[in-house]
Amino acid sequence: MGAEFKLGIDIGRVLIAPDDPSAPDDTSFLGSTIEDAMRTRPCDGMFDVVPDLVSRFEGRVWLISKCGPRVQEKTRRWLAHHRFFERTGVDPAHLRFCLERPQKALYCVELGITHFIDDRRDVLEAMRAFVPNLYLFGPQSSRHAADSRFILVETWRDLERSIL
Q1: Tens digits of per-residue pLDDT, 56-87?
Q2: CATH T-level assignment (fold) for domain 7-163
Q3: Which of 14, 58, 144, 164 has the most beta carbons within 10 angstroms of its beta carbon?
């Protein structure tokens, strides 16, 4: 991919698997202890696909997540515990947090993100004018399946086929 392509990836329910895929929140991190959060597993296939994406995007990959200070700390510790940066090649300096979901779009503009992966339609909706390639990740309800504004990808393997 050329130098103009940059990838943004959400963390909760995209990199980090949810306890309950049908629940709307990242339940494993919200009310859990640090120890429980560290036991939360990565999404299936994530550690197989993200290194390939980092290579294809020539290191221009950012993690952009919405969460408060307590969950930010759990997230940083989870990334370190699972050796995320070492295993994927994502630059540790490419981690951004915001307190409101629409702020993710502002980071995308600032960073020049051209591709973004998120599990929430409202987040991708806020990016539509700025990010040309939007990937709605994970199982979605049937009413979302017909939405052509986003590329629907249920798994990391689906995402790999779609992007690469």
Answers
A1: 999 999 999 999 999 999 999 999 999 999 99
A2: Rossmann fold (3.40.50)
A3: 14
